[in-house]
Automatic annotation (TrEMBL):
It comes from Tilletiaria anomala (strain ATCC 24038 / CBS 436.72 / UBC 951). This is Small ribosomal subunit protein mS29. The keyword Transit peptide applies. GO terms for molecular function: structural constituent of ribosome. Residues 180-411 form the AAA+ ATPase domain. It is found in: Mitochondrion. Its main location: mitochondrion. It comes from the Eukaryota. Keywords: Mitochondrion, Ribonucleoprotein, Ribosomal protein, Transit peptide. The keyword Iron-sulfur does not apply. Signal peptide: none annotated. Coiled coil: none annotated.
Length: 487
């Protein structure tokens, strides 16, 4: 009985084990397939969840990359030696080429002096001395027109035919010959070098020992850039700051001569020297430079200096005026009624205009009525077309027969009658500066930038715009002017 029970239990357990193994096999297959299905359907979600978990759990370190960063360490000796050898080999191969020539050294320019203005030096390249460049560029009028105003003083200069003629004119003035008594006006197309020619005249005057009165930018006197006040005594509007700067420039350029000249005494005693006047022109200018000097004191010192320089004959006086149309044009200053003032209503331009009008008459009887006329010396002027509002005056100055013609805008030239009378009374001599450039002069132009590489000014939009203004907005005129300069 016990044995039979034991056999029944063994068969039952065997059956249970078979059933359980079958169930495990079935359940295992079902579980693996469901897991596979779950993984295949939820892979994107699992990846997103893993990414979120990574962000929450860790902070990713950022690496800052520097643009154009230098090498992190020194170059190895082997790399440096290799690059140096390659460079030396390349340079050696280029020098062994039959087409190789050693670069020519930069040409050395001769310094300009009074002896350079001779026919034998025509077409040669010169430069102004550093002393002359510094003396001319310190003019206070340059400071009113920007830092690049003095660039043309540092550029190489090609001596041309009209420069020689100008030198002969100044030499005659230094000798006191009457042929130079009438003022000289330089004419020519835009860009023909009139301002450079005036700089040559100023350098020649300094080298010849003459007293120099250099006014490089006359338009700065009428463009309403400084203070002004009306004076009943002078019957004009005084410009105290501009007058003070003008006297300072006059003294800095001619200190030796002004320290020896005695102020002129007028018979009527209205102006000029008096009992309280200092003994020299240098002392008069220094008194006018005092901080407590009144505007009338400054103007009286200016008139005393100009009258004395015009009357004396010990030193020749060379007056160089650029942008001379400023003396014959309406100004940008206004009176109490908001009316534009004319240039002859301003004291400083009126004084320079009196010198021009006095220089037109050179007999003794005429000089007595025009005290500002030079007894020994010359006045040299030039015009510019860089300011469109003064083109009408410039046209009358350069073309005296164009008084009844039309201006660049097609309208009749409108200029007050008194200005036209002054233009005729000055009796200008004229010297043309726009003759075509020769082949040798063009070759010298190519050498100039190599000799003075730091002197060339950049060609920017502002320079182009100024040339367009000078041409009156006429592109054909601008092109023709460029051709005339380069032909």
């Amino acid at each position: 009985m016990a044995a039979s029970c034991h056999r029944c239990l063994r068969s039952a357990s065997h059956t249970v084990s078979l059933v359980s193994s079958s169930l495990r096999q079935v359940l295992g297959e079902a579980t693996s397939s469901s897991v596979a299905r779950s993984f295949s359907t939820s892979a994107p979600a699992s990846a997103a969840a893993a990414k979120v978990a990574t962000k929450k759990g860790q902070t990713k370190k950022k690496v800052v990359l520097r643009k154009n960063a230098p090498a992190s360490g020194p170059r190895s000796a082997a790399t440096k030696k290799k690059s140096d050898s390659v460079t030396q080999a390349a340079s050696g191969l280029s020098k062994t080429s039959p087409f190789y020539h050693d670069p020519a050294p930069p040409p050395s320019l001769d310094t300009f002096d009074a002896g350079c203005l001779a026919n034998l030096n025509t077409g040669k390249l010169f430069k102004l001395s550093d002393e002359t460049t510094t003396a001319l560029s310190t003019s206070s009028l340059f400071a009113l027109r920007g830092k690049q105003s003095t660039d043309f003083l540092k550029r190489p200069i090609i001596l041309r035919k009209h420069h020689v003629q100008l030198g002969n004119f100044i030499a005659a003035a230094v000798r006191g010959e009457p042929t130079s008594s009438r003022p000289l006006l330089l004419t020519g197309a835009t860009g023909s070098g009139k301002s450079v020619t005036l700089a040559i005249a100023a350098a020649y005057a300094r080298d010849a020992g003459a007293i120099l009165l250099y006014v490089p930018q006359s338009l700065a006197m009428i463009n309403s850039s400084t203070s002004y006040v009306y004076s009943n005594t002078a019957q004009a509007y005084l410009q105290p700051q501009l007058t003070s700067d003008f006297l300072k420039d006059l003294l800095s350029q001619n200190r030796t001569a002004l320290g020896k000249l005695t102020p002129r005494v007028k018979a009527d005693g209205a102006s000029g020297a008096s009992s309280s006047t200092p003994s020299t022109l240098e002392a008069i200018i220094k008194r006018a430079q005092a901080p407590n000097a009144s505007p009338w004191t400054k103007h009286e010192a200016l008139e005393t200096c100009i009258l004395t320089l015009a009357e004396q004959t010990e030193y020749p006086v060379i007056v160089v005026i650029d942008e001379a149309e400023a003396l014959f044009s309406p100004s940008q200053y206004r009176d109490a009624d908001f009316r534009f003032l004319q240039s002859y209503e301003l004291a400083l331009p009126r004084t320079l205009l009196s010198m021009l009008l006095g220089a037109a008459k050179h007999t003794e009887s005429e000089l007595a009525t025009r005290p500002f006329g030079l007894r020994r010396g010359a006045i040299i002027c030039a015009t510019t077309a860089s300011q469109s509002q003064f083109i009408s005056t410039t046209k009358i100055l350069t073309e005296p027969t164009s008084l009844h013609q039309v201006g660049p805008s097609g309208r009749p030239i409108d200029l007050p009658r008194k200005h036209i009378q002054h233009l005729h009374a000055c009796e200008f001599q004229r010297l043309k500066c726009d003759e075509p450039i020769t082949l040798s002069e063009a070759a010298q132009l190519c050498i100039g930038p190599q000799a003075l590489p730091s002197s060339s000014a950049p060609l920017d939009d502002e320079a182009l715009l100024s040339k367009v203004i000078e041409s009156g907005g006429n592109t054909l005129r601008l092109l023709n002017s460029l051709k005339q300069t380069l032909m």
